[in-house]
Amino acid sequence: MIKTTGINHVALVCRDMKETVQFYTEVLNMPLFKTVELPGGGQHFFFDCGGGNSVAFFWWADGPPAAPGIASVKKFPFDAKTAVGSMNHLAFDMPEDELEATLERLQNAGVEHTHAIVNHDDSPAGMTQEMHDGVFVRSVYFTDPNGIMLEFAATTKEFGPDDIAHEPATADMRTEA
Fold it and tell me: Ranges for the VOC domain (predicted)?
């Protein structure tokens, strides 16, 4: 039987490793703990994002350019769809009482962000401005210098059987964009 103990790391791609190191170490306070030079003009750097987890970045001198709206989110929450096989966003777990301070830190660092905590619930919109018993996660969304959508997320309730209430969609239900 396969048994995992969590996420070891998520590997993303950056356009500028120096800028990425500055953002993740200085703005997000994630220590850089490993760097690798790759054959053929590339790099692979690892940052400690807490809880024994890490986020890593590749950089290649001849890497393809960004493709917002295809491989990354164009603009949350208004244009958040991404292509099949892409990474939509990366969420870092955070205690709820830290969310307000992150808004101020992002603002002071000049990082574009949601400017308010997003309360996710089961309403038709999927989010609300008011905190209530149905809110299951509270989030702050922002992008890194590479256009990667990031989230600080605080889970606010324990999940149970009632939280699985939808049938999974199938490929034949897709509509062409």
Answer: 6-155
Cis peptide before 68 (omega within 30 of 0): no
Q: Residue 42's CB: how many other CB atoms inside 10 A?
A: 15
pTM comes to 0.86
Residues 3 and 53 in one domain: yes
For residue 153, what are the domain limits? 72-159
Q: Is residue 80 part of a domain?
A: yes
Instruction: Looking at the structure, tell me whether residues 103 and 150 fall in a common domain.
Output: yes
Say if residues 57 and 44 touch (Cβ distance below 8 Å).
Answer: yes
Contacts of 43 (CB under 8 A, 6+ apart): 17, 35, 36, 37, 57, 58, 59
In this structure, the answer to whether residues 57 and 14 fall within a common structural domain is: yes
Sign of CA dihedral 165, 171, 174, 177: positive
Task: Count the neighbouring beta carbons within 10 Å of the beta carbon of residue 85.
Answer: 6
107 and 48 part of one domain: no
Rounded Cα–Cα distance for residues 135 and 113 (Å)? 20
As for how many domains the chain has, the answer is 2
